[in-house]
Amino acid sequence: MKQLLATLALCIASIGATSAPALAEPTEIAVHVLSKGAKFIGTSMGGVAVQIIDVESGEVLAEGLTSGSTGDTEQIMRTAHARNGVLSNDEAAKFIAMLDIDAPRLVRLEARGPVSPAQAAATVTATQWVVPGKHMNGGDGWMIEMPGLAVVARSSVADAEITLNAKVTMMCGCPLTPGGLWDADQFQVEAIIMRDGEKVGQIALKYAGEASHFTTTYRPSQAGSYEAIVFAHQPTNGNTGLDRTSFLISE
Fold first, then answer.
1. Is the pLDDT of residue 3 over 90?
2. Is 29 exposed, middle or buried (0-12, 13-18, 19+ CB in 10 A)?
3. Looking at the structure, do residues 42 and 109 belong to the same domain, yes or no?
């Protein structure tokens, strides 16, 4: 009888152990978003909107904005480093996600930004397994690269002549200057001129004497509703961004 009771108790304990829910473990993920060819995208550009999503269920496990500085220029842009060298420091922009998961999850990281200017925003995604309690916060954590350029275009009309102005920066807000770390002379800034929905010309904008600012003038030959599609292109790595501005020329 004693043997039977002991066996029964052991079975009950075994059933209880197998049916008890697994305990979730806090798992930290540090997300850094690096502007292609430049520095980290953070507070100065409104941050990058980040979501971490369970691939299987579609559940959003964490979301927020990167915040902080663009990082250390010397460390990122000038110091030689190995393939796995760390680019970030404590002040570099990031989003810290704390997941409470009780089993490995295949997750998708979606990053959209910069938040400002809105028309500059691009979206980058990446997928990776996350295991409970195995943090992803060492070195640069989960770092992804955001391609593109941030362009803000404006136009003004005086005596039927159009002045086009554009501010062009890296996605982190880093400035373009002649001969600078981001050499303005190595970027192509142009405007595609549309009249009533048809292309009527394409002109180059020149450096305007102030960091990241480019300008040109244009005199339309006909009246109509115009749009200037102003784009910037970095031939060395393919970074491209654009903005649109419109104006009306009356008879």
1. no
2. buried
3. yes
Q: Which of 229, 155, 240, 157 is nearest to 198 (CA)?
A: 229
The answer to whether residue 16 sits within a structural domain is no
Residue 4 lies in a domain: no
Domain final position from 146, 172, 191? 146
Mean pLDDT of 178-206: 97
- Going from the C-alpha of 194 to that of each of 4, 12, 219, 229, 245, the distances in angstroms are 90, 78, 13, 8, 10
**Contact assessment for residue 68 and residue 173, using Cβ atoms and an 8 Å cutoff:** no
Q: Which segments of the chain does DSSP mark as H helices, in order? A: 2-19, 73
Q: What is the pLDDT of residue 15?
A: 44
Let me know: does 234 contact 198? Beta carbons within 8 Å: no
Q: Does residue 144 contact residue 111 with C-beta atoms inside 8 Å? A: yes
Is 135 found in the same domain as 30?
yes
Summarised one tens digit per residue, pLDDT across range 22-69 is 578 999 999 999 999 999 999 999 999 999 999 999 999 999 999 999
Examine residue 3 and state whether it is found in any structural domain, yes or no: no
Domain-embedded: residue 11: no
What average pLDDT does the segment 185-208 reach? Answer: 97
Q: Which residue has the higher pLDDT, 250 or 40?
A: 40
Q: Residues, the chain, total?
A: 251
Based on the fold, state whether residues 89 and 155 are members of the same structural domain: no
